[in-house]
Structures are given as C-alpha cells and as structure tokens.
Amino acid sequence: MYNIICNHIFQDGNKRTGLQAALIFLLLNEYRFAELVDDDLLTQFTLDEASGFHSLESVLEWFKTYIQPL
C-alpha cells in the first residue's frame, strides 16, 4: 500500500489501488481489519498517507494495531 501510494506508480488511481492491494493482501494471508475500522477511517488514513503524514514504519504500526486474524 505504502509503495503504491507514495511512489505514484500509476498516473491515476494510486490511492484506490494501494488500498485495494492491502485489502487483498490481508485476505490472502487470512487477516482482516478490526470491527472498529470503517470506511471513514480507511479513507482518512489513505489520504493522510498520500499527503506524506506517514512513514513506512508508521504505516506498519497502524496495520499492526488495526488488523486481526480471520
């Protein structure tokens, strides 16, 4: 997610693609977001990441906080 969003690998759709890639990665590895993670929180986190408010390390910590096994 971080590399897709922050490195702008596409001309358009980096935030959408990065978030979807993260969701698929979690599902394939039998994880999901905790119940308290809603669309608004995911949207704000993604926008903050795209705006440069998060480092790779802070993104990793955010995911550790908000994911759980299926």
Summing up helix and strand content along with how strands pair, one would put the structural category as mainly alpha
CATH superfamily: Fic/DOC protein, Fido domain
Count of DSSP H/I helices? 4
Total domain modules: 1
Give the CATH level 1 class. Mainly Alpha
Explain this structure.
- The relative contact order is 0.20.
- This protein is mainly α and 70 residues long.
- It has one domain (2-69): Fic/DOC protein, Fido domain (Four Helix Bundle (Hemerythrin (Met), subunit A)), CATH 1.20.120.
- The chain has four helices and two strands, in the order ααβααβ.
- The protein has a two-stranded antiparallel ribbon.
- Helices cover 63% and strands 9% of the residues.
Keywords:
single chain, globular, 70 residues, mainly alpha, 4 helices, Four Helix Bundle (Hemerythrin (Met), subunit A), 63% helix, two-stranded antiparallel ribbon, 2 strands
Secondary-structure map with pairings?
Layout: H1 2-7, H2 14-28, E1 31-33, H3 39-50, H4 56-66, E2 67-69
Antiparallel strand pairs: 1-2
A few lines on this structure:
With 70 residues, the chain is mainly alpha-helical. The protein has a single domain (2-69), classed as Four Helix Bundle (Hemerythrin (Met), subunit A).
